[in-house]
Amino acid sequence: MTPTRAVLLLRISYRTREDETDEPDGESERWSDRWRAEFSKGIGRQEEDGRAHAKRLGWTITKVIPEDDTSAFKRRKIALPDGTTGLRTVRPGFRAALDLLASGECDGLIADDLDRVARDPRDLEDLIDVVESRRPRIPVESVTGSLRLANDADITMARIMCAVANKSSRDTSRRVSRKHEELAAEGKPGGGGFRGYGYDRRNLEVVPEEAKIVREIAARVLGTWHDWTPEQWTAYETHGESLNSIADDLQAREVPTVTGAAWNARSVRSVVTKPRIAGLRAHRGEIAGTAVWPAILDTETWEQVCVRLSERGRHIDITLKRWLTDVLHCSQCGHGLTGKHGNAGEQYWCARNRGGCGKISIKAVPAEEEVERQMLDLLSLPDVLGRLRSIATHEATDAARAELVEDEAQLKQLAGMWARKEISFAEYGEARRIIERRVKESRALLTSAAPRVLRKLLAGDVREGWARLTPADKREVVLTVTAGYEVVPFIVGKPRRFDPDRLRPLDPQA
């Protein structure tokens, strides 16, 4: 069988930083952007080679899935389908490829090499389950010839090579970790990444101009800086100056950062709280001992700064502000978007640290204003308003609750059957989709029947009620009457400003 709807899987993992002290002060996103630009060429080469190999085989590629900055070896603790937790690789792209093959939307898989597809035996076994779920087997090929699953011999060889690749990754991780432990014990720099602010490229010699700025920031935080105006002394002497105020002043004075990025509260905090400026060597978040480089701040002053900033953090308001978090979803990978503050202002972003792809973002305030407008227009319709009021006071939800409990129990039972290999991955996927659709419907009914937020909103004028809602209640209302929104990329040719057409309501049955 020659595939006519093959999927091309691409993957690359950027160089990792084993030691946090190698990370540029408060500018990890900028650091990642630099590596992303460099390593994106590798993804391009993989795609070029994969398409050329597909042409030689006579395959037709209809879907390309890039796993950018994704490790096939490192595992994270996640919630499993049966409700327990376990260590698994987090690879949305790989899982999407398996779903395409299991559903029949794609009929073949091609990749650059076996280790681009799997370095964890569990991932390989999931692929094997999908491949063997059809007769004849779903074709799988690689450019290097290291991955074929056409027969039992190919599968055995793939398992052996995956185990070897996994062992290689473990060996590398162990050696790198041991080397960093040795460097930390000796008080030497870890190497890699940008230089630390205040020190030269080797992180061994003090840069006088930057050291002066470090001492200035520390004094302004502690309330002991001598260059304040009398008015500033009155405002800052007791509690010190805010990080935002310091960042704005440094930016106005055009004081350069290590990478040239703008100063912000996060980078100012990072500059004066890293142990290295006190002549201390840190490893994995712990002080390992005295460093070989000179200190910029004495230990006592550094500790006072850390305590002062820690005390400020206790008074931070952590209540929900960005109320469209997980209401907006990425159109590229399906993950919920989360609120973030960056140099471009408040945004919703498909965060990489939550398993997202990092490719979709949208300005927060305009998006919230647009969703609020749509919600108020919808809730002002008489039939919608009447239906919601009826649901909010209706007591006949016991059946929905009972069905939800039964379906959730069935999902756990189904996951157990898959784990024990009593059913194939394709059977598991099909059954799970059917049950999850019922679960979504039951949860939507129960959510819409939540009396607290709906009664608060529907008590009198809807617009006045909306204005009284907290951000968390607004989020609950949106999820009560919609399935959320999908955020699509910018339309080519249109100005890159806020475009309400990028917000597309999700299908509640999807």
UniProtKB/TrEMBL annotation:
All copies of domain Recombinase, residue ranges: 196-315
SUPFAM superfamilies from the UniProt entry: Resolvase-like
Domain of life the protein comes from: Bacteria
Coiled coil: none
Pfam family name, one: Resolvase
Composition skew (Basic and acidic residues), residue ranges: 171-185
GO molecular function: DNA binding; DNA strand exchange activity
Region listing for Disordered, in residue ranges: 171-190
Name of this protein: Recombinase family protein
Organism the protein comes from: Actinacidiphila oryziradicis
Organism ancestry: Bacteria, Bacillati, Actinomycetota, Actinomycetes, Kitasatosporales
